[in-house]
Amino acid sequence: MASVNSDEWRAVCEKFTNAQNLTEVESLNDPKNDPFRSKYKARELLREIHCTLKSFEAVDEESGTESRQPPPEEEAAAVDGQHQDVSVEGLCGDSPAGVRAAKLAAVEYYLGVNHIDTEELPAGQEHLGNCMTLLQKCTVTCYNVSLYIHVRNQLGILWAGYDESEKAQGFLETAESNYQQYMKDDGSPPIDMTEYFCTEENMLTHQERVRRFELAYTHTMYYLAQVYKNLGQTERAATYCHSTLQRQLKLNQYNPMEWALNAATLSQYYITKGRYMEGRHCLSAATVISGLAGDIPSEAAAQESEIESERREQLSQKRSEIARCWIKYCLNLLLDARKLLEDNIGDIDSDRQEELRIARRRAKEDEEKGRKRALLFDSEDTFDSIASLEEKVQCLFPVDFTEARAVFLVGQNYVTQAKEYFQMDGYVTDHIEILQDHSALFRVLAFFEEDLERRCKMHKRRVDMLEPICNELNAQYYLMIRRQLMFELAETYNDMMDLKLALANRQADTQSLDSHTIKKFNLLCTSSVKYFQMFLDSLRSPEGKMPEHLEEEVLRPALVARFRVARLHSRFITSSPTDQLDNLNKALENYKYVVQYCEAHPEAGAAVETELELSMEMAGLLPLKINRLKARMALNN
């Protein structure tokens, strides 16, 4: 191998530096009609370096000369970071043959990455394979451990792109093992593979070596998180994702908005597992870190500059996405609290409420210990801001209306933020999903409200926000969304009807209801039937026929809608025997539909066990009631 001080070697180093500059800097400015121009130039330089190294190798083998080995005192100084004016060749006890193999392997690695970047995957895979073959001649040392990890990272990415997650897992777990074993056995900052092609005066500092090596391992963890997710190993994926985010903060190597979105996404996993302290921490960190991306440009500035317009768009969208994750946090916290508190008729169980209060007092005592056990983002610059934001929303289950309302208001605030970007004009689906979450927040808050009149007003708010959207949507393009809205509106009107009747019954029995109350009750009943029927009609063929076989995604909703329509018809309050008979016949018709459909399709019974049982009972009782009513009508005539 040529001397590190020779003109020949300096020429190799200069080519490598130029190739790196073309790849990392110049390629960013390549024209759209020639997007890989700079990378093709870099490839030619790398090929020239490869040929030169092979010629050096041939000369060394013929002459029997060895690469320059630094004196022991120079080697120690280089490893300790006291100075860098020594060659990397021969450091860490590597043999000259090992050094030559590592340098050729590094060039193969860079050629492999180059081909992958230019969308030539088979060629890229071949070069990475060559790199692995050359490294088999070496032992893992501080001279080449970085290259070992980088090439396995790249092969992990490559195989993951081929949907070969298990192969990717193998390469990445080996990279992880390389890092952990090296840190256990040595732990000193290893040589970075770019230093293979550096002149003595351009060697990296101790700190820079540490940073690059840790960043390579951070990439290993990031890719493993993706692979574990693809393999369905969600717990491991979450752990690796959380550790990746923490390391990125520690190394100060992250894009604020990208980091924030990843943290917000991770929060959704914790929420599904009921780990609200971790979910809240991720969301608080996401909100704080996203603020480091700067203020959203004004609309005026965005109109004047294309760059500012794009930046405004990106910041607005990503912060609104984080806001939507906050909405899910608040909604799921309330829903899970309701599950714990709900009795068998849908009201708050006071015994469970007291048990939860006691459990919460214990939880508060242990929360600080729990926080220390959790994986927290303890960046010095942001920790106080994150902790301050966390204090504004609880992570323990609310047990009464006051606490539930506090969570609701946080969620509602983020609804407002999310809707600023995801407006109806341009983001129909997103806007409606946010409205549905807002409606769900009102619905679960109503569970905690003891005042029936206030609870009814909450449901009215839901109707006011969903009904106009449902009626305006084009059924041709948004059929599934309209069905969701119809069903929710039908259920909401049904809830309001029950509440109105309960309020009236507190003051008098059903027979003594005043005409205004009866009118209101029947109007709510009619509105509920209307939307259930609209949902059922949306299932009909263009010829107006109901399908003989209901698809799985609409099976339960369709049968439940039939059951609810039947119950609603039997609950209308009317003094007219003719109207009573008409309502009872319609109720019987819908009960019989549920029974007959499940008889024809036995597998459907499992989806509506309770409704089917009640339908069968009512299908047997209603004919008797209808006959008695007909008999009375005949006598009166």
UniProtKB/TrEMBL annotation:
Keywords: Cytoplasm, Cytoskeleton. Residues 58-82 are annotated as: Disordered. Coiled coil: none annotated. GO terms for cellular component: cytoskeleton. Pfam families: KBP_C. The keyword Cytoplasm applies. The keyword Translocase does not apply. It is found in: Cytoplasm, Cytoskeleton. GO terms for biological process: central nervous system projection neuron axonogenesis; microtubule cytoskeleton organization; neuron projection maintenance. SUPFAM superfamilies: TPR-like. It comes from the Eukaryota. Belongs to the KIF-binding protein family. Activator of KIF1B plus-end-directed microtubule motor activity. Required for organization of axonal microtubules, and axonal outgrowth and maintenance during peripheral and central nervous system development. This is KIF-binding protein. The lineage of its organism: Eukaryota, Metazoa, Chordata, Craniata, Vertebrata.
